[in-house]
Amino acid sequence: MKTAVKTTNIIASDNLESSVMGMDAQGMDMATFFFRDKIYNNKIEAVVREYVCNAIDEHKKFGIDKPVDYTLTEDNTFKVRDYAGGLSEDGVRKIFGMYFRSTKSGSNESIGGFGVGSKAGHAYTDSFNILSHHDGQATTYVCALGGGDNGVPVGHIYKMGSVPSNETGVEISLTVKDEDCREFGHEMKMFHMKSHGNIRLSIGNNVFERNEIVCQVEKDGLIIRVCESMDLEENFTHNGRGINYSFQARTKVIQPIHIKMGDVSYGDLKEKIDSLSDFMVAEGYVASIECPIGSLNIPVSRESISDTKPNEKYLAKVSDVFHAFLKEQFKDYTEISTPELLAKVCDGEKAQNMRSVLKTKFFTCGWKDLLGDNLGGFAQNVSVHSHQEVKKLSEVEHQDGKPILVETVNQKSAD
After folding, report:
1. Other C-beta atoms within 10 Å of 43: how many?
2. What is the pTM of this model?
3. How confident is the model at residue 338 (pLDDT cuts 50, 70, 90)?
4. Which of 138, 194, 248, 332 gets the highest tally of CB atoms within 10 A of its CB?
């Protein structure tokens, strides 16, 4: 993602003394410490997100059709493997050793661009490994924290050795603490559920292939997707103690409408736009709207969207596009006349499922959420209160073959 910043020239008198603001060596050590250890609210999620998304970007860059593999092995090793071009020694040392040096900062073809995500392993552990298959060699590097003369540990990259290889790509790996294995596995599953990319997850003997995209609509440069999701009860078991990961997956993954750039979710559109708050995604699906890379301002952590006026303005456009998509999804209710709507309300057994909630294959909502307070409120009142008296539209009095519908003021409400 482009990270260029606009600058202006300084005009000053020649006789003014000046100095450049910056950092000394101690300040740089402290800054890198904060960028690897203090910017992430969820460090395990950050490790999964940063390395999988970096691998996705490499596949996109090199046109690789094979899925990115990420794994939690039975011996507690987390791995991410891409099959792109791999990295030379100079590439490894620059990408994994230098902050704010990124191959992505000059283009909006890839997410990231801050030169921070490649060091995310050090947010969780003091040591992680890089295996680069490049130019006929498989070379192992260890990125380790330690030493330092300024009160904080500093990172070091050690080249461990090479062997011949006919493969290409990079594998990142690190050891997961015993007490974190369950949480690591669940974070990997939740990331997988949100993804629409070509990725493959393996946890022990369980393999989860790429999510199937069951609905995709493109409009005004935005892409709305609905993907099938793994079964919550089967894959997020809860024993009644500790974190309820099934509930967490439902609230963090199923219920939101994910705002994406690339394959990263930056938050819930429903939390940004009040008028969408009561639309719910059906169980078994995950909905997202993807924005062009660079269209939204994001913090270095990539965990959210910055609260800025440009973002607020752009999200209003995103909301309009998603509302139009929802209107199309619910067109059986929005593109009919009032009598036809009331016919649906009073349609015997079908109406039993429409008393207060309208359902499509992928979404549910209330009458008022879809049709507004007046028409939606009227339809909901009829659906809830009139079923004892009116079972079908044919029972309503007709004139010239058309039903006579009269809405009257409730005197008690008026009082």
Report:
1. 19
2. 0.82
3. confident
4. 194
Give the whole-angstrom CA distance, residue 198 versus residue 208: 11
User: Which amino acid belongs to residue 212?
Assistant: E
Measuring CA to CA, which residue among 167, 141, 145 is closest to residue 156?
145
Tokens read off for 329: 């999804």
**Max Cα–Cα distance, the chain, nearest Å:** 94
Nearest of 191, 169, 185, 190 to residue 263 by alpha carbon: 191
Tokens in use for 358?
């309208």
